[in-house]
Design the sequence.
């Protein structure tokens, strides 16, 4: 039986980032990677400036510099009905990157395997968690058909949104399947705004596109659940609102010898990110629709948060994991809520969502501050829920103003009620987030110190107040 400080399940971007972060603290890390073919995956290809900065701070600067990547200076949002385009640049002239998934992930895994203190166990899977309590974890993993047992102080589940380790830990999740994503490659010359991510909203389908290498762009088309490539071949009219050159490239790619990549778009939120001496990071903890492109930036933020928590409480693992959960939750909650609200606005076909799209267009065209704040939320530079709720209210207000100029009185009436009703979820999330943060502050600053004093005999608070 082996003994290590940390076992990390999953060698994707999240696992590599956590391995580097914890090895930097002098911990011995066993990275267990299943060795899936990342050339077939449709995920993790666009990285916001925040993610690039986090990768560099984790010591992957040489990997980032060696990538054959394309610059991303912001998003171009192309609206249909009315046909208008709004360009949202990153703040302060920052630049993100985009590149093919395997080109991004394989060098990260190779680099982290060379780090002192990191041992890569390739083509292996965690098969059972036999013990998980305050004393540590004992687990089994298989390699070449042979079962191995290892003890560790900490187990990190970084094995993606379907996370088998999360299920082994008995952590439930809130799960909603949203849609099916089809990904193809096209000639990047058909994208109208070089060096930008493209979002096509308001048509029969939502689409996201960005360059991944010189002359090549990835296009991801959002389709109803249960759809396949055959669905799009049989109904090419679904693409009618896309630019003609792009539409032609997509249909031509579907006729090629290579099968398009497919993935499901899900909302997943684990009920907790820690249990015993185990913790969840990245998509294993939460994931959402990819239209914000924030997935990788989010998992690198998790790695930094876990590193900071372990640095602050090196001898108190429960306290460290509590801090990690507390520090990551506000940003993740805002990210998931933002993706849900934006997807409804970009892909919804009812009168209320059409009015909300009109409000987005009007807001971004008439408020430079609003466009800047919206981009900061998209890029994970701004993570406060109250800011997102405020911006949503501004968009609804601009939607009402824009509808006043509409000539269709009946359409205005039909759109006003669902538009106003859509304000409910963001405001509810903002209130819940505020209450939760106040409760966390009360526990840390008042209840815990009083409980500590009570145990030492200095004070005698009421039993209810002294409870931990």
Sequence:
């Amino acid at each position: 039986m082996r003994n290590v400080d940390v076992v990390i399940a999953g060698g994707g971007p999240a696992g590599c980032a956590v391995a580097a972060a914890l090895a930097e603290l002098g911990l011995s890390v066993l990275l267990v990677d299943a060795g899936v073919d990342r050339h077939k995956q449709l995920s993790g290809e666009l990285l916001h400036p925040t993610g690039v900065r986090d990768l560099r701070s984790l010591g992957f600067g040489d990997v980032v510099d060696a990538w054959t990547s394309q610059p991303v200076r912001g998003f171009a949002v192309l609206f249909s009905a009315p046909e208008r385009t709004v360009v949202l640049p990153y703040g302060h002239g920052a630049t993100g990157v985009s590149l093919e998934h395997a080109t991004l992930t394989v060098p990260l895994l190779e680099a982290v395997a060379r780090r002192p203190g990191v041992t890569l166990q390739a083509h292996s899977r965690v098969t059972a968690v036999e013990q998980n309590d305050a004393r540590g974890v004992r687990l089994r993993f298989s390699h070449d058909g042979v079962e191995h047992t290892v003890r560790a102080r900490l187990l990190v589940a970084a094995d993606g949104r379907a996370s088998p380790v999360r299920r082994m830990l008995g952590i439930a999740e809130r799960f909603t399947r949203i849609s099916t994503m089809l990904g193809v490659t096209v000639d990047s010359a058909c994208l109208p705004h070089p060096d930008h991510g493209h979002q096509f909203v308001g048509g029969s389908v939502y689409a996201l596109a960005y360059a991944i290498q010189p002359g090549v762009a990835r296009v991801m088309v959002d389709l109803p659940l249960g759809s396949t490539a055959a669905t799009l071949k049989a109904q090419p009219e679904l693409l009618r609102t896309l630019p003609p050159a792009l539409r032609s490239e997509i249909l031509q790619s579907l006729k090629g010898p290579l099968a398009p990549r497919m993935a499901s778009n899900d909302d997943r939120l684990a009920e907790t990110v820690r249990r015993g001496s185990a913790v969840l990071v990245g998509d294993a903890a939460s994931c959402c629709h990819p239209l914000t492109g924030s997935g990788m930036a989010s998992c690198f933020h998790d790695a930094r948060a876990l590193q900071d928590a372990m640095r602050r409480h090196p001898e108190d693992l429960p306290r460290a994991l509590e801090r990690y959960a507390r520090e990551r939750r506000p940003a993740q909650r805002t990210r998931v809520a933002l993706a849900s609200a934006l997807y409804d606005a970009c892909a919804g076909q009812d009168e209320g969502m059409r009015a909300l799209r009109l409000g987005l267009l009007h807001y971004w065209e008439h408020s430079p501050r609003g466009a800047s704040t919206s981009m900061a939320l998209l890029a994970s530079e701004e993570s406060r829920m109250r800011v997102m709720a405020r911006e949503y209210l501004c968009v609804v207000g601009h939607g009402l103003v824009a509808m006043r100029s509409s000539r269709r009185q009946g359409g205005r009436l039909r759109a006003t009620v669902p538009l106003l009703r859509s304000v409910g979820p963001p405001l509810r999330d903002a209130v819940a987030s505020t209450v939760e943060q106040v409760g966390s502050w009360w526990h840390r600053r008042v209840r815990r110190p009083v409980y500590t004093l009570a145990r030492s005999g200095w004070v005698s608070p009421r039993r209810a107040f002294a409870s931990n």
In short: Residues 461-468 have pLDDT under 50 and may be disordered.
